Amino acid sequence: MRSRFERYINEYPKAFWTLVVAVFIDHIGSALLYPFLALYVTRHFNVGMTEAGQMFSIFAITAISGSFIGGAIADKFGRKRMILIGILASASASLLLGFIHEISVFYIAVGVSGLLANAGSPAQNAMVADLLPQEKQASGFGIIRVAYNVSFAIGPVLGGFLAEKNFLLLFILDAALSLITAVFIFVLIPETKPAETIAQKAQTLAMTFTGYLSVFKDRLFVLVIAALVLIQTVYEQLNTTLPVFLRDSHGILPSQFGLLLSMNAIMVVFLQIWITNRTTKIPPMLVMAFSGLMYLIGFGIFGFFATMPWFILGIILITIGEMAQSPVALSAVSRFASEDKRGRYMAFFEFGWVLPSTYASYCGGLVLDNLNPNWLWYGCILVGLLVILVYTALHIFGGNKIRVSDQEYQRIMIES
């Protein structure tokens, strides 16, 4: 057993495992804070979910800008630098947000936080692609997700209990963990950006930014990202409107919701690698369609049932969809990007991931505050149906770049 484990560890470079540990440390802070931000805003500023949704929209809009800036800089100056900038900015933002008592000032601070904190995310994804060959990338992104969810198994439980005592403790602890992560990365993780060619060295930073035009012209890639926007519109409700809905409609405490999210994380820890190893044998768009089906049923449950066993089943189905989706989506994106454009392609991927945050929680908040709250989950069912149709169409008409499994795509690339 130990020999098999050692062989598995040795299949990936040491720098990759170091990055996995860094992700784990940093995301404990995110996991203990983010799921409770809507609860904090509605209670601390005495506002409704509509105002909380506006906060998430502001963060998402500025995060998109930060992602595009960070992706270009990561391609020009390196991955490690941008990761460190993002983590240090996140630490500063957490401390600042915890001491603000005017909602207008809070909105401004959230905007600055989104701009700076998301700058390192494309660099992190590009670093994984730098370190691993194509056939290992889906499983590598899956391992990163396991590290993320191990932290999520710890964070929400800790955050839920701290939130019931003093919300300020969440902001302080998040900042402290970000600082620890920054030191860890600075000392132990090398730069992974591929060496520049003479032509690339001659490019100015402005020319690097104009390289986004070639990404926008990649029409198939843009269609894949558009489909991702649909599926993330549904998923965005998990950490924003769902805790408020469960509190106001069913009396679920923050600590109870934290336990639901921890169950989500524990499932990922134990099942993610197993699921990823099997989904890499299936065409990615069909995997994404299956994920849409799981979201459709999982979120739909909250509109029809009102007891904890059903809520647990809903989270289980959502988690299955999440485990199927995320590593496969990242691996599919990496098929489109050449080495010198990985940061920018990953930034565009982040755009598809974050764009729903600009409207999904706000629209969900409008439903919760003004209509029968169950209509939010009926809407998730309709969007889920559209997701399934779009991904199925992409599989049929998308060509070999997205129509075949990772294993088959690697074979085609070797033969060509």
Structure description:
The protein is mainly α and 416 residues long. The protein has one domain (16-188, 213-415): Growth Hormone, Chain: A (Up-down Bundle), CATH 1.20.1250. Helix content is 82%, strand content 0%. It is built from 22 helices and no strands. Helix 2 (14-33) runs parallel beside helix 8 and helix 2 runs antiparallel to helix 9. It is globular, with a radius of gyration of 20 Å.
In short:
It is built from 22 helices and no strands. The chain has helices at 2-10, 14-33, 37-44, 49-77, 79-98, 103-117, 121-131, 134-165, 168-188, 198-202, 205-210, 212-216, 219-235, 241-250, 254-279, 284-301, 308-336, 342-354, 360-370, 374-397, 400-403, 406-415.
How is the CATH topology named?
Growth Hormone, Chain: A
On the 0 to 100 scale, the average pLDDT is 80
Overall tally of structural domains: 1
CATH level-1 class:
Mainly Alpha
Report the sheet-strand fraction.
Answer: under 5%
Keyphrases for this structure?
416 residues, mainly alpha, Growth Hormone, Chain: A, 22 helices, 0% strand, globular
Task: Chart the SSEs and their pairings.
Elements: H1 2-10, H2 14-33, H3 37-44, H4 49-77, H5 79-98, H6 103-117, H7 121-131, H8 134-165, H9 168-188, H10 198-202, H11 205-210, H12 212-216, H13 219-235, H14 241-250, H15 254-279, H16 284-301, H17 308-336, H18 342-354, H19 360-370, H20 374-397, H21 400-403, H22 406-415
